[in-house]
Amino acid sequence: MIEARGLTKQYGDKRAVDDVTFSIAPGQVTGFLGPNGAGKSTTMRLILGLDKASSGTVTVNGMRYSEMASPLTQVGALLDAKGVHPGRTARSHLRAIAATHGISDRRVNDVLEQTGLESVAHKRVGGYSLGMGQRLGIAAALLGDPGVLILDEPVNGLDPDGVRWIRELLRFLASEGRTVLLSSHLMTEMAQTADHIIVLARGQVKADAPLAEFLDVQ
Ligand code: ADP
Ligand code: ADP
Questions:
Q1: Per the database record, which ranges form the ABC transporter domain (predicted)?
Q2: What is the pLDDT of residues 141-163, one digit of tens each?
Q3: How far away, in angstroms, is 168 Cα from ligand 1 center?
Q4: What is residue 80's predicted lDDT score, i.e. its pLDDT?
Q5: Span from the CA of 100 to the centroid of ligand 1 (angstroms)
């Protein structure tokens, strides 16, 4: 469960997130839908404690990110391509994160398997395609077996197979009872992935409803 109350983020004169209130339920995929600049990324960064709110609050399972004893076990995130050293292998990258957080090597193997990276885990990340890079990002997000997953535009730039794979994985993870939140600027993408949509525009929530309410089909 992710809850925002009156959440606001001001950058100078710019109000990137403007008095936003929402509840995101577990066991389903929720999408932030909105055009470029709508405030999707900023809201995610506020949830993850990567930015400080100007006012209002946002909590995950009742706790602010900064209050969590072991955040990786509660919230996993895939933001825009974070720098993995290109000379590193996928396995060594994941092992390094795991080691810092007291997570076992066995769990590294599990997430490599779940993201279909086992056969390339010994290869340097510099040679990875965009889709493989996204899988690695998701593998890292899953390391702590978190109940909440946050993904910023996870299918951007991927080929149809890559898009389908991420969609199926997210739906599976939600079916396990996790809270899955992703962002997209494409309604067509949301219609195929999300159960519930929160429309953001100019930093404000313009709609917050089950997918069925946006579509003329059942
Ligand atoms: P989205 O993810 O929906 O594309 P963002 O959350 O990235 O939107 O951005 C929302 C608004 O806030 C945009 O107008 C953007 O330019 C502005 N913004 C985002 N981050 C910063 C920042 N660090 N400094 C100044 N303005 C920012
Ligand atoms: P079990 O061994 O209890 O049958 P599963 O076959 O359900 O377990 O899952 C084995 C591993 O594969 C788990 O890590 C699970 O999260 C993952 N997994 C199972 N099905 C999928 C799927 N459709 N997409 C992604 N991961 C999956």
A1: 2-218
A2: 999 999 999 999 999 889 999 99
A3: 29
A4: 76
A5: 31
- What sections of 21-129 are H helices per DSSP? 40-47, 90-100, 105-114
The residue to which tokens 């396995």 are assigned: 91
Instruction: Please compute Rg for the chain using Cα positions.
Output: 17
Given a contact cutoff of 8 angstroms between Cβ atoms, the answer to whether 77 and 148 are in contact is: no
Q: Which band of pLDDT confidence, cut at 50, 70 and 90, is reported for residue 217?
A: low
CA 210 / ligand 2 centre spacing (Å): 27
CB distance 76 to ligand 1 below 6 Å: no
Q: Please report the atom of ligand 1 found closest to the CA of residue 35.
A: 3
Helix (H, G, I), strand (E, B) or coil at 35: coil
pTM of this prediction exceeds 0.90: no
Contact 197, 211 (CB under 8 A): yes
Q: Is the shortest distance between the CB of 169 and ligand 1 below 6 Å?
A: no
